[in-house]
Design a protein that fits this description.
The chain is an alpha+beta fold. The chain is built from 11 helices and 10 strands. 23% of the residues lie in helices and 19% in strands. The protein is globular. GO terms for molecular function: ferrochelatase activity; heme binding; metal ion binding; peroxidase activity.
Length: 424
């Protein structure tokens, strides 16, 4: 297909009509080829694309440009939306356009600026929910690809990341297929919920026709109570023992993909696991504090291991070989035994609480959006998950959804775009 004005117009109309035929609505609908045609040359989509008030400088672009996507290593922010999409683009060209458009929107939204004026006869180019000037608001947008994207539709079978597969059901899971897997993943995070929803609404508008929401769950990170690591709905601090990925050697060993038989395009990316975990808080609230703490292996008030006094104290497992102080089947001991043999299975955890109100039986529907990143799914997440099989905590949590994705390498500069190395 040529890039003539008529061809571009046909492409826009085709993307819009496909979105309408698929029944893409205001909640689900996020799809893409429509405004993307001009993005093939790296330029903004016509008319509907907000334009920053000034040329973005290094400080503005620092949140978006780089060898890796910024949202992977940034600590959990107060608000998030996690979405999985089915790609409805017809072919590889339209998929390319979709990723161009997604990049342009993410670049603008994370940098901030003034939406483009379209005149009094056209609809506004921005929802206006953040006011006339869109603030960057420390927004991050992290994009991943699922195993299903590498089927026959786009000629990508030979480019699938070596370890990417469909997430299996593990012991103690109760997976709902409607809340699992997807072609693409998108996580938006910011200090404020309105910035997350504004970004989601903007992306939905500009990508209509190319992808459709498969599932979505919003979450939040609680403020430290009273200090240190935020708490989950079970009242315990969540994510205390993350590896220090600010250390380049640690990040290269545990987080970033490079070599190891992987396709060359994956360098700089990371395997992303999402687990949607309901917490049965009504039952949990009836459990004694002693039993709760022994299930976790930590004190509920301070977060300290049961053989320590401070949150970040290292458990002294060699001095407690029988588990008299920290039980052998406690969560922290099974998840991270802290041995030389298990050190290489550590992963970077990003957890968010969620609240979906009440279920049909009148019980609270709350839980955790567990997101983690690693270099190798089998060596890290799956090894840890198998160690946790049958732990006492499984009586109070119920994983019901999520998936495996590969978080794409970063966008290095203004001429680059998400998925360029995959699709070039």
């Amino acid at each position: 297909m040529s890039d003539t004005p008529d061809a571009v117009g046909d492409l826009r109309r085709r993307g819009f009509l496909r979105g309408a035929a698929l029944g893409v609505g205001t909640v689900g609908a996020v799809a893409g080829a429509g405004a993307a045609a001009a993005a093939l040359t790296g330029g903004p989509a016509q008319a509907a694309t907000p334009t920053p008030s000034a040329t973005p400088g290094p400080a503005q672009d620092a949140q978006f440009h780089g060898a890796h996507q910024a949202g992977i290593t940034r600590p959990a922010q107060q608000a998030t939306a996690f979405l999985s999409f089915d790609v409805t683009a017809a072919d590889r060209r339209e998929l390319t356009e979709l990723l161009h458009t997604l990049t342009e929107r993410a670049r603008f939204l994370t940098s901030g600026g003034t939406p483009k004026a379209l005149g009094i006869t056209g609809p506004p180019s921005d929802s206006g929910t953040l006011g006339p000037q869109v603030p960057g608001d420390a927004l991050t947008a992290t994009v991943g690809v699922g195993a299903s994207l590498f089927d026959d539709r786009f000629g990508l079978k030979d480019r699938k990341p070596l370890r990417l597969s469909t997430m299996p059901a593990f012991a103690d899971d109760d997976l709902d297929p409607s809340w699992c897997h997807g072609d693409l993943s998108l996580q938006l995070t910011a200090p404020h919920q309105d910035a997350v929803l504004h970004a989601l609404r903007d992306i939905a508008r500009h990508t209509r026709g190319g992808m459709q929401v498969r599932w979505r769950l919003d979450g939040f990170s609680s403020p430290p109570r009273p200090s240190g690591t935020p708490r989950n709905h079970l009242g315990f601090k969540d994510g205390i023992a993350n590896p220090d990925v600010a250390d380049p050697a640690t990040a290269d060993r545990l987080l970033w993909v490079s070599g190891g038989g992987e396709p060359a395009w994956t360098t700089g990316g990371s395997y992303q696991v999402v687990r949607l975990i309901r917490m049965l808080v009504e039952f949990w609230d009836r459990v004694s504090i002693t039993e709760q703490e022994r299930m976790f292996g930590r004190a509920k008030d301070t977060g300290a291991p049961l053989d320590g006094s401070k949150e970040f104290d290292t458990p002294k497992y060699p001095q407690d070989p029988m588990g008299d102080v920290i039980p052998l089947d406690s969560h922290i001991r099974m998840a991270n035994p802290r041995t030389a043999q298990t050190d290489n299975s550590r992963l970077l955890r990003r957890g968010y609480n969620y609240d979906r109100g009440m279920d049909g039986n009148g019980n609270l529907d709350v839980g955790l959006i567990f997101v983690c990143y690693q270099q190798d799914l089998a060596r890290q997440f799956e090894t840890v998950q198998k160690r946790l099989a049958g732990e006492p905590l499984v009586d109070y949590v119920s994983p019901f959804g999520g998936g495996y994705f590969f978080a794409l390498p970063g966008v290095r500069d203004r001429s680059d775009w998400l998925g360029r190395t995959l699709l070039s």
